[in-house]
Design a protein that fits this description.
Helix content: over 70%
Number of helices: 3
Shape: flat
Strand content: under 5%
Number of strands: 0
Structural class: mainly alpha
Length: 55
């Protein structure tokens, strides 16, 4: 279970970092901003990895 919490913390880190930098609490955000940031970051990482593998 501890490993799963670590994976979750790593996965949510970009969104949580931006929330802290903007001074927004997780309760105020409702998950929208954090989800958007995480989607952008992990989408870019996935795209870069796919381009590296395919090209």
């Amino acid at each position: 279970m501890r490993f799963l919490h670590l994976v979750l913390d790593v996965f949510l880190f970009p969104g949580n970092l931006m929330l802290r930098k903007c001074g927004i609490s997780i309760e105020e955000d409702g998950g929208l901003f954090r989800s958007f940031i995480n989607m952008c970051v992990w989408g870019a990482v996935s795209l870069a990895l796919a381009m590296y593998v395919l090209l």
